[in-house]
Amino acid sequence: MLSHERIWSALDALAERHGLTASGLARRAGLDPTSFNKSKRRGTDGRDRWPSTESLSKVLGATGSSLDEFLSLVAGDNSGAGNPIPEGAFPPQTGSIPLLGFAQAGSGGFFDDGGFPAGQGWDVVDFPTQPSERPGVYALEVQGDSMMPLYRDGDILIVEPGGQIRRGDRVVVRSCEGEVMAKVLTRQSARSVELMSLNPDHPNRSFELSEIDWMARIIWASQ
Q1: Angle, alpha carbons 219-15-18 (nearest 5°)
Q2: What percent of the chain has pLDDT above 90?
Q3: What CATH number should be reported for the domain whose range is 4-74?
Q4: So what's the architecture of 96-222 in CATH?
Q5: pLDDT tens-digit profile of 119-128?
């Protein structure tokens, strides 16, 4: 039986098959990145929402999938036959998330334009929460002592791109120049962001929003 849950599960499965989050799938299809977010799957009146036929058509075109393949996912077949994960994309792994060192994070090719993990060169690390509960999360390994005394060399920071960020949150920021840093968000306006350094020996930073590639909240740290 065709149901709201099966349709959305099929879209999630199609995203995983291509090494993408739901947001990444929407972006690849030329849609608003939030189009397939869980918050968009139910209206303010509590009624279930369905993806539009136009959205589905764009997704199938962007992934090179046929309608028959999508319907097989609706039916619960996620074997991936005939549509493997692309070479270079990290495979979805239950209980594991992508891992990258801070130094590598400043290089190109590891993130999409929304700050979500993409491309090749990622390792994986175990994560105590199922990735499906926090789609898009990834891990960064601290390198060096610039974040002492809060974070030490070798600590693992779990980062959630696309999540809501509030004043006082610890965040990872990547500038348009490729600099990646972990800071505390002290102020954000319509034009600029002010960040406090975790290490008192390092200066606080201020950026115009146009100077920031992406910013994501640190939700957990392994120490």
Answers
A1: 110
A2: 20
A3: 1.10.260.40
A4: Ribbon (2.10)
A5: 777 888 877 6
